[in-house]
Specification:
Strand order of the largest sheet: 1-2-3-4-5
Shape: elongated
Distance between the termini: 25 Å
Helix content: 25-40%
Structural class: alpha+beta
Radius of gyration: 31 Å
Number of strands: 22
Length: 461
């Protein structure tokens, strides 16, 4: 049973739950379900839960069929694209069909582990698209940094990392995993890549937007030409040169052009410049120098479907990042399983700790700098742990540790010391970059510890 969920009886005997209560939902419970139906009476809470489900890296959770039960409301594009469909009444047929399809497709998958966060995200994308026969479409979103977003992949990139999001899609296309079909183009600020721009005509001399335009009048009789304001009198339009009244456009006069006047520098000109003011970073850019972004709709190629089944195998891409004294993550999980079995037999307790570096992708993009940073941190951790402790680094962001029978108090102090020292190192390394944070936590391993539950928890870190 899922807290806050009501089981929907069905002929297929599937575990289908209608979620109406969104308080304190823990997505790890959903690994037991075959499908969810989210009641759209609370759209904000339902959207937040849907995003959390699709953002998970636990396969049984992010691939879970999720439908929206919406009797009379409006569902925006983002939650619609993250769900498996809208239902005006709870029907078993479409839910059962999707459950059977996802289960069948998942039978094709082989286990896949990678140290590359990009490969991890791509494999997840492939598997989601493969189980649904879905394409990846750009959606208009006024709240998105770029004005458009790809909702599923956007969950893994903060607002300022639109280019990183597009880069991973380009990489998928360059390696023939995706086929892109043109949908639209957009223009973004070349400095921060925001799509929220104010396009305006400006003075060609001082670049002020405080300008106005006025028609030019050409008087046929005397050939005088000047701004319309020079001709305006209480008696109508009168030529300031020959003092004759202008009565009929096309007969007495015409309006061949307009003239612009700057109210700041008084400059007059006929063709204004056009600039874009970025509403995010305030950068002003000539429109011809804005960054043009092509937005494609992506579908899986045969190679992409293979990658969904087996994970990404790109030659040269998976250079193993080894750290002296640290075991790889697969070996770490084996040690963890043995340690759990050991404490169950001995009746004693051990701890598993983790320190996660939550760095924006742009701070990881300089691999040389990032790997040097990881090696510095791993040196510090290794020098401040015992030889009996098991250490690992995984997912390009998290240090894991097993502390056999060290005691919760001692482990808490160790992790606090790690966090304090690593924070100082990060502050010095990324002096002008405030967008990183650090998380340190631990779990006690004892007779009550369930390996599978702990692993699911570990993989969400």
């Amino acid at each position: 049973m899922i807290p806050g969920g009501k089981k929907i009886q069905n002929a297929g005997n599937f575990e289908i739950y209608l979620i109406t209560d969104y308080q304190d939902q823990d997505i790890r419970h959903f690994a037991l379900a075959d499908a969810l139906v989210l009641d759209w009476q609370q759209p904000d809470h339902a959207t937040a839960l849907l995003k959390e489900i699709r953002a998970s890296f636990i396969e049984s959770i992010y691939l879970l069929p999720v439908f929206i039960f919406n009797a009379d409301g409006v569902v925006s594009d983002t939650p619609k694209s993250l769900s498996d469909g809208e239902l005006s009444v709870v029907q078993e047929e479409p839910i059962g069909k999707m459950i059977r399809q996802v289960k069948k497709r998942r039978e094709d998958f082989t286990p896949h582990e990678t140290n590359s966060s990009e490969n991890r995200i791509l494999t997840k994308l492939f598997r989601y698209m493969y189980t649904r026969d879905k394409t990846l479409n750009p959606e208009v979103d006024v709240h998105a940094h770029m004005g458009y977003e790809y909702p599923l992949i956007r969950l893994h990139y903060p607002a300022g990392e639109s280019m990183e999001m597009l880069k991973i899609l380009r990489r998928g296309t360059e390696n023939d995993f995706f086929q892109g079909i043109f949908v639209d183009k957009t223009h973004v600020c070349p400095n921060c890549h925001s799509g929220h721009l104010n396009l305006r005509e400006v003075c060609t001399k001082c670049a002020s937007a405080h300008i106005s335009s006025e028609n030019l009048i050409h008087h046929f009789v005397c050939a005088y030409m000047g701004p319309e304001g020079d001709f305006v009198t209480k008696q109508g339009l009168v030529c300031p040169k020959c003092n004759r009244q202008l009565r009929h456009i096309g007969v007495d006069y015409d309006k061949p052009s307009v003239i612009y006047r700057c109210h700041d520098c008084r400059h007059e000109f006929q063709e204004p410049d056009i600039t874009a003011l970025c509403l995010n970073c305030k950068t002003v850019t000539p429109v011809e120098k804005l960054l043009e972004i092509t937005l494609d709709k992506y579908s899986l190629t045969d190679l992409g479907r293979d990658a969904a089944r087996t994970g990404i195998k790109v030659a040269g891409e998976e250079r193993e990042f080894t750290i002296p004294g640290f075991v790889n993550f697969s070996t770490f999980l084996t040690f963890l399983r043995f340690e759990i079995e050991r404490v169950k037999v001995s009746g004693k307790e051990s701890q598993m700790g983790s320190v996660s570096l939550n760095l924006p992708a742009r701070l990881r993009s300089n691999r040389q700098q990032f790997e040097r940073l990881v090696l510095d941190i791993s040196d510090f951790i290794r020098n401040n742990t015992d030889s009996s402790d098991i250490l690992s680094f995984a997912n390009d962001n998290t240090f894991f540790m097993i502390f056999p029978e060290k005691g919760a108090t001692a482990v808490e102090k160790i992790l606090n010391d790690f966090r304090s020292s690593i924070e100082k190192l990060l502050s010095n390394t990324f002096e002008d970059e405030p967008e990183w944070n650090l998380a340190a936590q631990y779990e006690t391993l004892n007779a009550e510890t369930e390996y599978n539950a702990l692993i699911n928890q570990v993989k969400t870190i």
